[in-house]
Amino acid sequence: MQVFHSKKELRNSLSSFNTKNHTIGMVPTMGALHQGHLVLVKRAFLEHNCVVVSIFVNPTQFNNNDDLRKYPNTLDKDVQLLNTISDKIIVFAPTANEIYAGKIKSNSYQFNGLDTLMEGKFRAGHFNGVATIVELLLNAVMPDMAYFGEKDFQQLQIIKKLVQIAAIPIKIRGCPIVREPNGLAMSSRNERLSKEARKNVSFIYKTLKSAKKKFGTKSAAYTIHWVQDQFKKKSDFKLEYFQITNIDTLTPVLRKQKRKKYRAFVAVYIEGVRLIDNIALN
Ligand code: AMP
């Protein structure tokens, strides 16, 4: 497996793939890979003969230094795991100075409100950081298609908007959430949970599924209050937000409309670890 740390070496290696007979699929990650990431990589391999996985813990998208400090850094293990899929995967693991060309700072984007609620509201500057690094990585790799998980659904919608406004000629593919057998959405942050908490967090997905049922017959406001009440009864959980939005605009639903698609989003702390999840409601 080839692992590149510099853009120049990566581009040299990829130059043979930028032909008519080859297409490049890319999976941007922050490493500490798990099955959720691997599903994206396998999907990319089904659709392209070259797959690049980037591994980079992006400092500009963390609004909390402690969270950045605690973020796992496991490059050797990640490379081993990718090798179990194919030794043809190309890993791009740049340093911050290499990818940011010495200027580690976010750009400022206009996402038409996609970035103001939920993760955007509670993590100031997060999406400018995400969009900046994704733009830099896409420009370095120049894939035909890039894969993102619905686990970070708001991020997925923002990346789709980013390629439009920055006129990057790349298709963005969203992939379904991969869960543990108990329903917990897979995440690198799950490793920080105790065994006990890891069992108890199944409550999050159970509550999302019940919310989906309730939303079938009740209003968004009723469903939101119901979910907030469920979390109030659980002293080990601290609910940050539960929101029901239109999937395209990510604006809160005031009144349900028949042809519109909705999704519910949650962010919750347990043992000081912040977890996010979401579910399609119709
Ligand atoms: P991360 O390394 O957490 O930045 O994630 C890299 C990519 O993997 C993002 O597009 C995530 O949405 C996606 N991803 C992470 N966890 C999951 C999961 N459980 N299911 C599907 N996609 C995921």
Question: Any overview of this molecule?
Answer:
By secondary structure, the chain is α/β, with parallel strands linked by helices. The chain is built from eleven helices and nine strands. The protein has a six-stranded parallel β-sheet, with helices on both faces. A three-stranded antiparallel β-sheet has the order 7-8-9, covered by helices on one side. A hairpin with a 2-residue loop joins strand 8 and strand 9. Helix 7 crosses helix 8 and helix 10 runs antiparallel to helix 11. It is globular. The N and C termini lie far apart (42 Å). 35% of the residues are buried. The model has no long low-confidence stretch (mean pLDDT 96). The structure holds adenosine monophosphate (AMP). The site of adenosine monophosphate has 16 residues, from helix 2 and strand 5.
- The amount of beta strand, in percent, is 15-25%
What's the β-strand tally? 9
Bound ligands, named by name, code or SMILES? adenosine monophosphate
Distance between the termini: 42 Å
Could you describe the largest sheet, including whether it forms a barrel? Answer: 6 strands, parallel
Query: What does the average pLDDT come to?
Result: 96
H/E topology pattern: EHEHEHHEHHHEHEHHHEEE
**Radius of gyration using CA atoms only:** 19 Å
Give the fraction of residues assigned to helices.
25-40%
Count every helix, treating DSSP H or I runs of 4 or more residues as helices: 11
Residue stretches low in confidence (pLDDT < 50, at least 5 long) are none
